[in-house]
Model the fold of this input.
Amino acid sequence: MQTDPLPRHVLAINDDPAILRVYAEILTDEGYLVSIDIVPPTDLSPVHTVNPDLIVLDLIVGHQDRGTAFLELLRGDPTTATIPVVVCSADTRRLDELADQLRVWDCGVVRKPFDIEVFTEAVRVGLAKGRARLRVGARPGCARPRS
Done:
């Protein structure tokens, strides 16, 4: 369970509402604030609005890989490039194809079906990486007031 005084914010993106409910339940129980979306956005304005500390992303939406294009967009923008991402997918073939690129993008990977402890550990590791990056320098243009 997280111990920060203010909850860390996780954006979960998955086209299956049942999976989103599972994510929300697990992450809320761990003390995180959770926002959900059923498709990866085609522009970054929703990410800027939500300003998550971490994104949990499924690659495949409606039998199409929309997650990779979203990751390219996310990593290509200096205001979102350092947001930690945990890719959580049942498409093991696609995960294997993208393994090198996901490492370049510094994404955590969780294969579905997943063990809850594996999932929560991937989220903790991703958030720790994000905090380490923020100590070096805040994400430009994405300061979220902590009141």
The chain has one domain: 9-135.
